[in-house]
Each structure stands twice: as structure tokens, then as C-alpha cells.
């Protein structure tokens, strides 16, 4: 329904009330409706799931059509990111938000900063999803509100052509509401707990849930040691719980991203249940590090399994955890991924210890031999030292080519002394093209950075503190922040407008007419930024 159709419909409704609603302005109603396109989180989840499905199909047709996101830990951060994307690129197509459980734990828990071990309140995750979408919807309302003001000006000046252009712009307005890939960690409990939390996340607007195969009560950050995985059947129960949550709420296109931590996880908490040779449980148990039982009398509360007719004792640590054989991580990742896709997952996430295209591709090639359209979400993690990793990759490549590397110390390639070197420049170019090349070679549909805004907040605050509390004093803020906002066209320089002051003024006028006491008058200091 167009803006004008909305106004006509509202006018008809007002007339039906025989004068009792004459104080209601039909066009104001139309504006409020257009500014609030999504009435519920379920509406958002359905809409954004459709976006992701279309983007996934586009990637299948052309790997250059990969998508991207940045992790955001506050609604304002997410809002400013999408506003910036629209400003610089004219569209949000292919750009999402990522909700990181790590940042929820570190920044949004009532317990204070916590490590990424699922210790934070699980309700804080759906709360952040709702907050992000509240801010994105407010960005819609703000942008449309400015179009409405321009439309009123054009009408008042009698410029019918401009008025029509603005009316068309209102109808063609692209929403700031984009998909969120939301981290449900390891499900925060059993499959029922996973289902209940998934429902809350979907009701808040999430169209894509990312779940990992770690043990819920032993969960670790993907880039830390001590990770413990669960047997496939346990994990698949949680995958099905997420799917049931989507289907119950009518989000039939909901996306499930299954993450495997097996590459860095050398431990399991339990032996998988197996009823036949070669079944999933047997395949999982085949990776266990075992020793043959030569003397049954040596068993003391041990678990034993049969392997090729031999009684075997899985090696168990003092923590009561069992360990996998060294060097089996990639094989376990491949099995995890294939199994997930064969049981309802839509996208994969392989957590690696470094950003190396061929390492990722070597696993994806094996997965795609079974599931040809397998696609990845990949964590371009700040836990990697990107500079050092890629300089070392270039160094190793040069060694393989027989080039002279005598001017470089591989262990010290992070040194600023190398920043202008040929090796460093080649490494930077590999970093710049990493996403494009990895999407073409390694099946990566979506690239995300989990924690970028955690780091940018710290960096910008450090820079401001150094200047403001130093000799620069107030000039530190003016030159480093405000002047840059003005020069770069950062909308937030008019922070009253960004916070909704003008929207509030519009509402005051709708509600009280000429009696409205509005904040945006001549003496509003934000007018200083109109120049």
C-alpha cells in the first residue's frame, strides 16, 4: 500500500466515526503507519528470513554475491552501522548484523564482564535482539520523518514536481531492518531449554540462529582452549528444537547455522550411544583415543568400548572427560558438517584457529562432495592476529617459491619495521581480498567479524581520553570528534535529532495541534549544525 493509499484508507476510517474522530488527521495516521512498518518481532523474522533465503540462492548462482556483517553489542551501534551503510553504499543489500554471545557476556550481563562460557543471563540475548530492532525501526522513523518534512515544504512552496518525487521516495524507502544472525551459544541447557530460548529469540526478531556443538555446561570461547564437544545425536536434538521453534511461530524460512568447534576441541564429555557398526555414534567413538584392554582386572570404574573385535579403554582425564586422537579435528569437522546439513541445518560455521583459505577449503571440498550446495558462515575473528598470520603466509609462500627471505625474521614479522616492506604490502593485499577469495574458493556465503565494535569503542575512547585529558583539552574533542562528524556527514552530530526529538515534535503536533510545545524551534542549538 502506497503512502497516499494509506492516507486515503485512514480518511475513510475517520469518516466512519461520524465526527467523533475529526481531531485525527488522516495523513498523520498514514505517516505513523509508514514509520512503523513492522508491528512484531515475528513480522521482522519472516521478512528477514526471506532476505537471507534470496541471498543464499544468489550466492549459489554466483559466489561473488557473498554477504557480510559486523557484531554489535548495543542497539545504537547497530543503528549507526546500518545508517552508515545506507549513506556510503545506497542500500543495505547483502549486509546484516551479527549478535555475538561473547559480547553479550562481556558487555551486557548483569553480573558484569564475563568470559564467553554461557554464564550470562540467557534472556539478555533476546533482549538485545529486540533492542537492535527497536533502534533500526527508529532509524526508519527518523529518515521517513525528514522526508515528510521535506514533502510539507514542497507542498507549501507549490513545487508539485518535488512533492511527487518525495512521495515516490517515501513509497520506495528501504528499511534499516536487516537480518540478524544471533548466537544461541550451545543452547543454554538441554534441548527443551534450547527450544524455549530459540522461541524468545525468534519472537524478538531473529531469523537466523547460530548454535554450536560444545557441551552447554562446559562451553568455552571458540578461540580458547579446553573445548568439549557432544555426540552428534545430542547436538541434532538441539538443531531440531530450533527448527520446531521456527515452525511453531510460523517462520517457515528460518535459518539454522550449525557451528562445529571440533577443530580445536580435543575432548568429549560422553561416549556416544551406538547400536550398529558405522552408525553416527560409532563414527563419533571411532575418533576417541583408546588403548587395548589386556587385563580386565585393571579396570576400575572405566568405560570400555569394542573396536574391531578388541575391547578398548578410552583415555579419560582426571576431569572425567575423554580425549580424541591427535590430528582428527578436520575429520571430525567434516563429519559434523555433513551430519548437520543432512539433519536440517542451512548454513555451517567451522571455527578455525587462523584465517587460511586453503585450510577452510580442504574441509569444504570434502563436505561438498556429499552436499554440493554446502555454504559457510565464517568468523573473521579479532582473535586472529591478521597482520602476523598473513605476513607469515606470504613468508612461507616465498620460501616455497625459492625467493630470498633473508631480510625477514618470521617470528618477528609483526614488527613495525616491516610495515612498508614488500612482504607486508603483499600480505595486506591478501587481507583485503580474503573475503572475496574465500567466498570463491571455500564456500563462504557470509563473512562476519564477531567483536569489531568492542574494539572500536575501546580504540576511539582511548584516542579521545588521550587528547581531552592532555594538552589538547577541549580541542581534542572538537578536532577529533565533532569536526570529523561534520566533515564526514555523520548524522549523529545532530544527536537530538538522532535520539528522536523531531519525531517527538511531529507527534506533539499530531496530538495537540497548534498548542503543541515543540523542542525544534529557533533556539534549539542543533540548528548550529544546519550549515
Please outline what is shown here.
The chain is 49% helix and 11% strand. By secondary structure, it is an alpha/beta fold. Strand 3, helix 8 and strand 4 form a beta-alpha-beta unit.
Q: Any overview of this molecule?
A:
The chain is an alpha/beta fold and 531 residues long. Helix content is 49%, strand content 11%. The protein is built from 19 helices and 14 strands. The protein has helices at 3-15, 26-35, 41-61, 75-89, 101-108, 124-156, 160-171, 191-204, 232-248, 280-285, 329-341, 357-368, 386-401, 422-432, 434-442, 452-468, 474-488, 495-498, 501-512; strands at 67-71, 95-99, 180-183, 208-212, 228-229, 255-260, 267-268, 290-292, 305-307, 310-314, 322-323, 347-350, 376-379, 444-449. β3 (180-183), α8 (191-204) and β4 (208-212) form a beta-alpha-beta unit. The radius of gyration is 28 Å and the shape is globular. The two termini are 36 Å apart. The mean pLDDT is 94.
Q: Describe the biggest sheet? A: 8 strands, parallel
Strand-pairing-aware structural class: alpha/beta
Low-confidence stretches: none
Coarse morphology: globular
Determine the number of helices (DSSP H or I, runs of at least 4 residues): 19
Instruction: Give the total of beta strands.
Output: 14
Radius of gyration: 28 Å
Beta strand %: 5-15%
Percent helix among the residues? 40-55%
Instruction: Report mean pLDDT, rounded to a whole number.
Output: 94
If strands are numbered along the chain, what order do they take across the biggest sheet?
Answer: 12-6-4-3-2-1-14-13
In whole angstroms, how far apart are the ends? 36 Å
Amino acid at each position: 500500500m502506497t503512502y497516499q493509499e494509506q492516507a486515503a484508507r485512514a480518511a475513510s476510517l475517520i469518516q466512519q466515526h461520524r465526527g467523533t474522530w475529526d481531531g485525527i488527521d488522516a495523513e498523520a495516521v498514514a505517516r505513523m503507519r509508514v514509520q512503523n512498518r513492522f508491528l512484531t518481532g515475528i513480522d521482522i523474522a519472516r521478512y528477514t528470513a526471506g532476505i537471507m533465503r534470496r541471498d543464499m540462492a544468489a550466492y549459489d548462482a554466483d559466489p561473488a554475491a557473498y554477504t557480510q556483517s559486523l557484531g554489535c553489542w548495543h542497539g545504537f551501534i547497530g543503528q549507526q552501522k546500518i545508517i552508515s551503510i545506507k549513506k556510503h553504499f545506497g542500500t543495505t543489500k547483502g549486509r546484516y548484523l551479527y549478535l555475538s554471545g561473547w559480547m553479550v557476556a562481556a558487555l551486557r550481563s548483569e553480573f558484569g564482564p564475563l568470559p564467553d562460557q554461557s554464564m550470562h543471563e540467557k534472556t539478555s540475548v533476546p533482549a538485545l535482539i529486540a533492542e537492535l530492532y527497536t533502534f533500526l525501526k527508529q532509524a526508519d522513523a527518523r529518515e521517513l520523518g525528514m522526508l515528510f518534512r521535506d514533502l510539507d515544504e514542497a507542498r507549501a512552496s507549490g513545487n508539485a514536481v518535488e512533492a511527487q518525487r518525495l512521495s515516490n521516495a517515501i513509497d520506495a524507502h528501504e528499511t534499516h531492518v536487516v537480518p540478524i544472525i544471533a548466537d544461541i551459544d550451545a543452547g543454554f541447557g538441554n534441548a527443551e531449554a534450547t527450544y524455549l530460548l530459540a522461541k524468545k529469540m525468534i519472537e524478538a526478531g531473529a531469523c537466523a540462529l547460530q548454535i554450536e556443538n560444545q557441551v552447554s555446561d562446559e562451553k568455552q570461547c571458540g578461540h580458547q582452549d579446553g573445548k568439549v564437544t557432544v555426540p552428534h545425536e545430542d547436538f541434532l536434538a538441539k538443531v531440531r528444537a530450533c527448527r520446531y521453534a521456527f515452525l511453531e511461530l510460523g517462520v517457515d524460512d528460518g535459518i539454522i547455522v550449525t557451528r562445529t568447534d571440533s577443530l580445536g576441541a580435543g575432548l568429549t564429555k560422553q561416549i556416544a550411544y551406538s547400536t550398529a557398526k558405522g552408525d553416527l555414534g560409532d563414527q563419533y567413538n571411532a575418533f576417541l583415543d583408546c588403548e587395548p584392554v589386556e587385563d580386565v582386572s585393571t579396570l576400575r570404574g572405566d568405560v570400555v568400548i569394542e573396536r574391531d573385535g578388541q575391547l578398548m579403554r578410552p583415555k579419560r582425564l582426571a576431569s572425567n572427560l575423554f580425549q580424541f586422537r591427535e590430528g582428527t579435528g578436520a575429520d571430525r569437522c567434516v563429519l559434523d558438517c555433513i551430519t548437520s546439513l543432512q539433519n536440517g541445518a542451512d548454513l555451517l560455521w567451522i571455527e578455525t584457529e587462523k584465517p587460511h583459505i586453503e585450510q577452510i577449503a580442504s574441509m569444504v571440498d570434502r563436505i561438498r562432495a556429499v552436499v554440493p550446495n554446502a555454504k559457510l558462515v565464517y568468523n573473521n575473528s579479532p582473535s586472529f592476529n591478521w597482520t602476523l598470520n598473513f605476513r607469515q603466509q606470504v613468508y612461507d609462500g616465498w620460501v616455497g617459491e625459492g625467493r630470498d627471505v633473508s631480510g625477514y625474521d618470521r617470528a618477528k614479522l609483526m614488527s613495525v619495521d616491516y610495515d612498508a616492506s614488500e612482504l607486508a604490502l603483499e600480505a595486506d593485499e591478501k587481507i583485503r581480498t580474503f573475503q572475496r577469495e574465500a567466498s570463491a574458493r571455500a564456500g563462504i556465503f557470509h563473512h562476519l567479524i564477531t567483536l569489531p565494535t568492542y574494539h572500536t569503542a575501546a580504540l576511539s575512547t582511548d584516542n579521545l581520553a588521550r587528547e581531552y585529558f592532555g594538552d589538547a583539552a577541549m580541542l581534542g574533542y572538537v578536532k577529533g570528534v565533532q569536526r570529523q562528524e561534520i566533515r564526514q556527514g555523520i548524522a549523529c552530530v545532530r544527536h537530538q535529532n538522532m535520539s528522536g526529538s523531531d519525531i517527538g515534535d511531529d507527534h506533539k503536533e499530531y496530538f495537540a495541534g497548534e498548542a503543541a510545545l515543540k523542542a525544534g524551534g529557533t533556539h534549539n542549538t542543533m540548528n548550529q549544525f544546519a550549515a
